[in-house]
Amino acid sequence: MITIAVANQKGGEGKTTTSLNLAMGLARRNFRTLLVDMDPQANSTGIFVNPETLSKDLSHLFQNTAKITDIMLPSYNHCMWVLPSSSRLAEMETVSVNSVEAPYILRDALQTIDPPMDFAVIDCPPSLSIFTVNSLVASNFVLIPLQAEKFSMDGIIGLQQTIASIKKRINPDLEILGALLTQLKPQTLLTKTILPVLSKYFKIFEHTISDGVAIGESHLAKKSVFDYNKSSRQAQEYEGFLEEVLRELKK
23: closest CA among 103, 96, 82, 86? Predict the structure, then answer.
């Protein structure tokens, strides 16, 4: 199984949108895919089910009161499952952080899925919490969605340091897959100025996601952008990005 953590400690960078459409794009290619919602805001979960109506979610995994297979939900695509979150997960942070086993909870749980998935895509919270640490420990790759804005740059150093620490101490195989520019306004001076700076930190994917209404409308419709409007510009951009990801993974 290839596990990809979609991470950025700043909110509003497109983590949930990218996690959802990456996972659904893989499922549409008949890869068995698990979308893991590690964010207590549960936005990824909310695309498929009301998080507050669930009897079991990731908080129960962290409490050790449920197995991962007890929590997994099927999505509307036969090749994709969801590991849901809810606001209850936030209550587990202070409890879990004191355990020696805390960083390994998600990794160990994912390894028990039989038969294993082809891919797991983890929607990380917008913070460097124990849930982000769990996500990075469990992953092979980190994907960083971000906007070409000054404030998007501010959290990069902290995220880099966290990734480097996890790689050094716990997960030596962790690699940065690259950065995906989202909500892009390509003609602005700011974008043209920041892009060369960003490329010094990470590989920047050639495909970018432009600013447009299809993404927001797909969220309201509780669908991926492919299922909402596959001919939209943003759907085509995510298709191109997905092909680029698959090429990178083959290297």
Answer: 82
Using CA atoms, how far apart are residues 37 and 130, in angstroms rounded to an integer?
Answer: 14
Q: Contact 70/98 with Cβ under 8 angstroms?
A: no
Q: What is the DSSP track for 17-58?
A: HHHHHHHHHHHHTT--EEEEE--TT-HHHHTTS-GGG-S--H
DSSP characters for 161-212?
HHHHHHHHHT-TT-EEEEEEE-SB-TTSHHHHHHHHHHHHHSPBPS---B--
Which of these, 210, 212, 216, 214, lies nearest to 191 by C-alpha position?
210
Residue 8 · residue 145 · CB < 8 Å: yes
How many C-beta atoms surround the C-beta of residue 200 within 10 A?
Answer: 7
pTM of the complete model: 0.91
Paired residues of 119 in beta bridges? 2, 33
Give the 3-state secondary structure percentages of the chain, helix then strand then coil, rounded to 5.
50, 15, 35
Q: Where are the alpha helices (DSSP H) in 76-187?
A: 93-96, 105-110, 130-138, 150-154, 156-169
pLDDT tens column, 171-195 = 999 999 999 988 766 666 556 666 7
Nearest to 16 by CA among 26, 6, 25, 24: 6
CA angle 190, 21, 12 (to 5 degrees): 40
pLDDT tens-digit series, residues 184-239: 666 665 566 667 777 777 788 988 888 878 888 898 999 988 988 988 999 999 99
